[in-house]
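If your schedule permits, I should be very grateful for your opinion on a structural question. Kindly check, if you would, that the fold set down in the tokens agrees with what the sequence suggests. Thank you for your consideration; the sequence and its tokens are set out here:
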Amino acid sequence: MKLVRPILAALALSLVSTAPALAQRTDLVLGVVLEPPHLDPTAGAAAAIDEIVYANVFEGLTRIGPAGEVQPALAESWEISDDGKVYTFKLHEGVKFHDGSDFDAEDVKFSLDRARAEDSTNAQKMLFAQIDTVEVVDPATVRVTLKQPQGSFLYNMGWGDAVIVAEETAEANKDNPVGTGPFKFDNWARGSSVTISKNPDYWGEPAMLEKAEFRFIPDVAASVPALLSEDVHAFPNMQAGDALAQIEADPRFEVVIGSTEGETILSINNGKPPFDDLKVRQAISYALNREEIIAGNGSGLGTPIGSHFSPANDAYVDLTGAYPHDPEKAKELLKEAGHETIEATLKLPPPAYAREGGQVIASQLRNVGINLELIPLEWADWLEQVFTNKDYDLSIVSHTEPNDIEIYSRPDYYFQYQNPEFNAVIEELDVTSDEAKRKELYGKAQQILSDDAVVGFLFQLPKIGVWDARLEGLWENSPVQANDLTKVRWTE
């Protein structure tokens, strides 16, 4: 009997030593708030598109890295002429699209010419406005000549709107995206999720995940239990509400509060009376209490802003003191503009920062005589009514595109704001490469927008990342509207 225990122990050790190690997990379920209207980043303004396909399915000549830096992508290198007008891109060779067709310089020419064409449906067509010609030098070389030097050109080529697509598949990319990235599109279960899988023929460093599902979970009531039950492994931008403290205390999860490029604003239709009156817009700015709005925005987190610029940017100017919360000043300005009261609509897209923040803003404006009818809209309806048709008085939205202060210079943009002085600053900025001068011009642009009270500047949207503590490689910050999975893996 004395021999039994040693024999059993030896047998157990033998079994342990010869048992295969548990396979590392390679699947991932990400919770995202919004379902995209389609999956073509070159034909839509919705951030939800890039949040699925940027860097995963589609790639550009360059890409924006996690710190907001410009990195090589399909272009392995480039040379810039002495006058700053000619960019010669050397492309990676041996690259294939997901349908097996070859990528080469012709695809770059097609994509850039398509994006800047007169009939282009690209939501960021202004990114390509300085391009004069695109020439194919050879299959691995493209020469892009600009009308004038543009300090932001390489950065612009890293936007999701500038990804390279093939002529043969471009028109079908909304429903069946075909790119060159480390993941390929698998399936879109409408109303539920989009699934992508590892591209076995990827030209670069292969992905470590075999499959990723982007599951659409638009409200807090569903997202928190999905996380706690481990049905969803990660929320790169989580709506946690009051449950955030509970999640932070749970050792299964990591909570990372980062920054975004999301300037959250009270959009104002500057082309529609009475909001075409500066005094009315200034009254709105004085009526707003940013701290209350942040406290009631769904997460209770955010950094106050006074113009359309990220506080994380070196060129940021703090203008939050330009319009301190002053309801009496707001009433005085409305009276000077000839209004005791104003009746208006506030159209709200689905995110909690809009729906919940809208309630707070409506109360603040009601206190000064501006009575708002709150109209909740689904994302597709918001894009059609507000963004495209300009059929609105006020709205709330986060503009998550990087360094996008130039949108206020666009002649047909949904703010309907026109100021030649502001446009001149943006035009000079566009041709300026010197960083000190660019910083000065960014400051001027921010000041003009504040002076004109173009919109109600609220706060910089925080990035509340919550994920399984065994995951690594997800971005802490969001310098672009993306969920880049190229470096994501399970550690055990």
